[in-house]
Design goal:
eight-stranded mixed β-sheet, four-stranded antiparallel β-sheet, 18% helix
């Protein structure tokens, strides 16, 4: 039986206007996070609360199916990020917040424990004393929900902050990241790993024993090292040893990135590059350094490990070609995923998102290009599959536009992969209004699946092409090249060739061709005007980079400055590749959006772009959202943005 929909949920039945389409597609997901209790009898999920907050619901599957709200967050600068069951009667939740400082925006996290009925809320993150010599940004990360031999205890990281001790011997002298075992009822804690001022991450095995440490120490200027070093410990030792796989043989990789430990096999799974493509390897943790390639390809990167359950058991890996494919190492799960995909409408992608303690019950999300996703609970003993909640209640039952994989030629003959979405009823349409939509990153890629912006544009009658230009991730190191900033002419050239292909194929009307993008995609949209001002007749940029040197300076106060500096590089490409410094080249009208709490790309980037365009006598509209971060996670903001885009494109393309 499906869980009853909460009172705030609305169902869309098809938009007749831009206003209605913006309301439906701009609304946040109605379910943002799902978790299954150890017994499999309770579900917790996070849903939107008011405009930009969150609310935590609990459902008793053996009782009343109506979700019960147990906690809410209305603070606009704080997001309830995830909630997981520690026991059947207690959850642990993680918040992410942004603090405004005079020199920069500073992110921080905090962890709490809360009863399944909303009672007994306790802070799990340690608070700073007045003696602390610095802030505690990191509120901890859960390493294990189950610790062998320690009932009701979890394993979580802790950031130690050194304290001033001029008048006391009790001041803390330690600094860095360590690990504690924490009782979720009493908050009593035991130090498991002493703080290490160079540690960046720890990985525990399935029994809750810390087996991997990742170090990325800071230099004398307080900047993070570009390359990490990795350490492991054997089953029967507390000493740390360097994780240096042998460098001989055909499967040599320069660097191994560990992700998850398999206790029974006594190995760590992770990624290494072979012949220019990322592959999954295991490295033995018995001291031998023995490694084995588990899954690799010669056309795309294998870029995700699949884990399930409370113990993060590794069960497979995945990669994306035309669609995302999962290779299960567990034959039973492989057969199960195939049968589910075949049985559900449209052969959707199957994602196992959680499991109870013994994995007898699985939480599954099925989704596709035309389905935002439905969550299900599978009882493996009976084979019964029950629908739980749609991820976007307001779009449930609505007919969506289909997404097709395409390839188009760049100017130098290179075939560029991408995804084409045609409006419903116009799948064979000609001379349509069209939008090229480059992705963010640049170290990212588009994939086949549901996209709310794509579906909004298609609902408004636009053909949409998403190019995976050179500089995209997922296609190997040669395709990524020097990245989309240092090799911007190649990346943006591919983006422009996407528009030319739409016209050459007769899909797009050349006088009604626009470009839009978010983050790096917004940068590419703006920079497309620098390369070819006549191609696109309208430009939409959301939270875009506009000045590469300014982007470099935004990171100066942070530990990752050296990494950002190297990524951007130095040379004539910096000025030539900064659209704000080439505003005089623009011919098309520009629409800009940005949030004031954007840590990824500072709001001054869009402010500067708008000023430069105005100074150059160009047409620009700039809309700023107060107290919103890079993703603009507020329904009102997203809905307004879609309304503004709809009106802007209609006016600019004279539809």
């Amino acid at each position: 039986m499906a869980i009853a929909a909460p009172a705030w949920a609305e169902t869309g039945t098809g938009a007749e206007s831009g206003e209605e389409a913006a309301r439906l597609f701009g609304a946040r997901q109605s379910v943002e996070y799902l978790s299954l209790s150890p017994s499999g009898t309770k579900i917790a999920y996070i849903a939107p609360h008011r405009d930009s907050g969150e609310i935590l619901y609990v459902v008793d599957l053996e009782g009343d199916p109506m979700p019960r709200a147990i906690a809410s967050n209305s603070e606009p600068k704080l997001d309830l990020h995830r909630c997981d069951w520690a026991t059947d009667d207690r959850l642990v939740c993680r918040f992410y917040g942004i603090a405004e400082r005079t020199e920069a925006l500073v992110g921080f996290t905090r962890m709490i424990a809360i009863g399944a009925d909303g009672s007994d809320v306790d802070l799990l993150s340690r608070s700073n004393s007045w003696r602390a010599l610095g802030p505690r940004q990191d509120g901890g990360t859960i390493l294990a929900l189950d610790v062998e031999g320690s009932e009701d205890k979890i394993l979580m990281t802790r950031q130690w902050v050194e304290e001033s001790g001029a008048d006391t011997r009790l001041a803390n002298r330690d600094g860095g990241l360590g690990v504690e075992e924490v009782d979720i009822h009493t908050q009593s804690r035991r130090r498991v790993e002493r703080p290490d001022d160079g540690a960046a991450r720890y990985i525990a095995d399935e029994n809750g024993r810390v087996r991997i440490k990742v170090r990325r120490p800071l230099d004398s200027l307080g900047r993070m090292a570009e390359n990490a070093s990795y350490y492991y410990r054997t089953r029967d030792s507390d000493s740390w040893e360097r994780l240096d796989p042998p460098t001989d043989g055909d499967d040599f990789f320069a660097e191994f990135y560990p992700v998850a430990v398999d206790t029974a096999k006594d190995v760590v799974y992770g990624f290494g590059e072979v012949d220019g493509y990322d592959a999954v390897f295991t490295v033995a943790l018995d001291g031998s350094g023995r490694r084995e390639k588990v899954l690799g390809r010669s056309d795309v990167d294998v870029d995700q490990l699949i884990t399930i359950g409370r113990r993060n058991r590794v069960v497979g890996a995945s990669y994306a070609t035309e669609k995302r494919e999962v290779v299960y190492f567990d034959p039973e799960l492989a057969a199960l995923a195939r049968s589910l995909s075949a049985a559900l409408p449209g052969e959707p992608l199957i994602d196992i998102i959680d499991a109870n303690a013994d994995e007898s019950k699985l939480m599954i999300v099925a989704s596709s290009d035309v389905d935002p996703g439905m969550s299900y609970l599978l009882d493996r003993a009976t084979g019964q599959l029950n629908p739980i909640l749609p991820l976007r209640e307001q779009l449930d039952g609505r007919t969506m536009a289909t997404m097709s994989h395409v390839r188009f030629p760049a100017a130098d003959g290179t075939m560029i992969p991408g995804y084409l979405t045609m409006p419903v009823g116009a799948e064979d349409g000609r001379d349509l209004p069209a939008v090229v939509l480059p992705h963010g990153g640049p170290g990212a890629r588009d994939e086949w699946g549901f996209d709310w912006i794509v579906q909004f544009l298609a609902a408004r009658g636009y053909a949409v092409l998403q190019p995976n230009f050179r500089g995209s991730a997922g296609y190997g190191s040669a395709w990524f090249g020097r990245n989309g900033f240092q090799a911007w002419e190649t990346a943006v050239g591919d983006v422009n060739d996407a528009g030319r292909w739409l016209v050459a194929e007769g899909i797009a009307d050349p006088d009604r061709l626009a470009i839009a993008g978010w983050s790096y995609g917004g940068y590419a949209a703006l920079q497309s005007q620098v390369l070819d001002p006549a191609l696109y007749k309208a430009v939409v940029a959301i939270a875009p980079v506009t000045d590469l040197d300014q982007l470099r300076e935004e990171s100066r106060a942070f530990t990752n400055y050296g990494i950002v500096d190297a990524f951007i590089g130095n040379g004539p490409h910096v000025r030539a590749g900064s659209p704000a410094l080439n505003a005089e080249r623009f011919a098309a009208p520009v629409l800009l959006f940005h949030g004031t709490l954007d840590q990824n790309v500072g709001v001054r980037q869009s402010r500067r772009m708008a000023d430069r365009l105005e100074d150059a006598g160009k047409t620009v509209t700039y809309i700023e959202f107060d107290d919103l971060a890079h993703s603009l996670v507020a329904s009102s903001a997203r809905q307004r943005m879609l309304r503004e885009i709809d009106a802007f494109l209609a006016a600019s393309l004279e539809r």
